[in-house]
Amino acid sequence: MTVLVFLDPDHENGRVADASKPQLMATDQGVTRGDGIFETMLAVDGTPRKLSAHLARLAASAEAMDLVIPPAPAWERAIATALAEHPPATELVVRLLVTRGVEGAGTPTAWVQASAPGTSGRQQRETGIEVLLLDRGYDSSVAERAPWLLLGAKTLSYAVNMAALRYAKKQGADDVIFTSSDGRVLEGPTSTVLIATVRDGVKTLTTPLLESGVLPGTSQGALFKTAAEAGWHLGYGPLEPHDLFEADAVWLVSSIRLMAPVRSIDGKEIPVSRELTEELTALLVKGSRD
Amino acid sequence: MTVLVFLDPDHENGRVADASKPQLMATDQGVTRGDGIFETMLAVDGTPRKLSAHLARLAASAEAMDLVIPPAPAWERAIATALAEHPPATELVVRLLVTRGVEGAGTPTAWVQASAPGTSGRQQRETGIEVLLLDRGYDSSVAERAPWLLLGAKTLSYAVNMAALRYAKKQGADDVIFTSSDGRVLEGPTSTVLIATVRDGVKTLTTPLLESGVLPGTSQGALFKTAAEAGWHLGYGPLEPHDLFEADAVWLVSSIRLMAPVRSIDGKEIPVSRELTEELTALLVKGSRD
């Protein structure tokens, strides 16, 4: 089942709505223009993971979009309501969505959605994933000079991300790593790229440069904190495709699927390390309790 | 008022729905992922203009998105229902929208929306518009090599287009002409670029190369047909910004606003020709009766 809770000034803890019935206006700019933002987080035993990181990124996305959204406490109360309304579950997916609302109304539409996770994430964590490198079309410097491209915002305009995933699946792959037109590794359509290298006993975890126009990953942020405490060296790109092939392990990391080990890129197998995946997943989970 | 008509196998002529009430599921991928396509057309005295061109482009967008949508006759009947349900009006805006539907359901959500046009289009036709050149981030060859970027599809993921318009308005401009990262003129966020040059009595109308990743404009297509019959020479780019400054007139053309004369680019005035605007608007209207 899906629980919906709308943020509503008349309902302090959010207004619970029937998810089996239409709840959105057909003229909402969220649907007519993909004009809105979102976050997806995992709740474990009723507690959202990385809540403050997700709320901070939601606020940053809103600012990039000139969207005035409800303050963090209103989200926290609505999330609590959604989790209380859902039958107890070990894991739930909690989505926060805000649109620019109905054209002309000047009021955003904001809601929380809680539902059970699909099975594919857990499976891909176990079996690993095959990815394709696909050109995102942008060069790695455009994000800084062209803020209207919204590269640092998590917007509802995900048609390209979904098309890239469909393209990969048609070729028999599971997921995508986007590259920039100048040959840098960027991110997955719904995930952050992480690579590990172990040289002379020194373990290094590297993620692409934020300035290259990737979304700041909340999971990468949580993991870097605890990995540093555990003795890992940390690196921020730039990364190029050869870095992926030369790494000791590569993952796509995200809030629901967690660390998904990449086992091939463009059909070429790369090393997978169950040991490193287990170590880093534990550190990620530890870093996600905030 | 807004009239909504959903395409529905149980209602041959479409199902009329109350636009003042929520009609969409909150889990529709149109809103959660901007995953869908649309068209916007003008109906004059109850008759849609360029209907077959809009339906053909909708079908092309659907194909680019791997989206199976209702066939043209179903759209035609739903449009007729929407226009019959709306109080008579000289001009109405008719929108066609299709989303990938609720996640997992496998059925697209498709509807027609009819409403009165805003006043700004008519005003901008009269007064002309000030535009900014903004980098779209893509080079002009990416559309052909990266179909997952959906550059030829009119998707619901319009957040960047809307952000570019907001950016322009904050700088005091009215609209935007996107350029490619390799310096070509592309298109407006919701319009096609057209330039006219008159040399030694030869009148030439030029639009950017389709292959550079712009959306094929239905208005440009209609106008080119009748303009050729009226003796105009036609050209397809590539165009660069200097071509805009050297032209005898520049327009952003679209289905509702029609020919909007550009009177300045990046704050620099360019020639405006009331005579050419009137001549080409008449040819556009003539070409739009299909």
Automatic annotation (TrEMBL), chains A, B:
<dbReference type="InterPro" id="IPR050571">
    <property type="entry name" value="Class-IV_PLP-Dep_Aminotrnsfr"/>
</dbReference>
<protein>
    <submittedName>
        <fullName>Aminodeoxychorismate lyase</fullName>
        <ecNumber>4.1.3.38</ecNumber>
    </submittedName>
</protein>
<dbReference type="InterPro" id="IPR043132">
    <property type="entry name" value="BCAT-like_C"/>
</dbReference>
<dbReference type="InterPro" id="IPR036038">
    <property type="entry name" value="Aminotransferase-like"/>
</dbReference>
<dbReference type="GO" id="GO:0005829">
    <property type="term" value="C:cytosol"/>
</dbReference>
<dbReference type="Pfam" id="PF01063">
    <property type="entry name" value="Aminotran_4"/>
</dbReference>
<dbReference type="GO" id="GO:0046394">
    <property type="term" value="P:carboxylic acid biosynthetic process"/>
</dbReference>
<dbReference type="GO" id="GO:0008696">
    <property type="term" value="F:4-amino-4-deoxychorismate lyase activity"/>
</dbReference>
<keyword id="KW-0456">Lyase</keyword>
<dbReference type="InterPro" id="IPR043131">
    <property type="entry name" value="BCAT-like_N"/>
</dbReference>
<dbReference type="InterPro" id="IPR001544">
    <property type="entry name" value="Aminotrans_IV"/>
</dbReference>
<comment type="similarity">
    <text>Belongs to the class-IV pyridoxal-phosphate-dependent aminotransferase family.</text>
</comment>
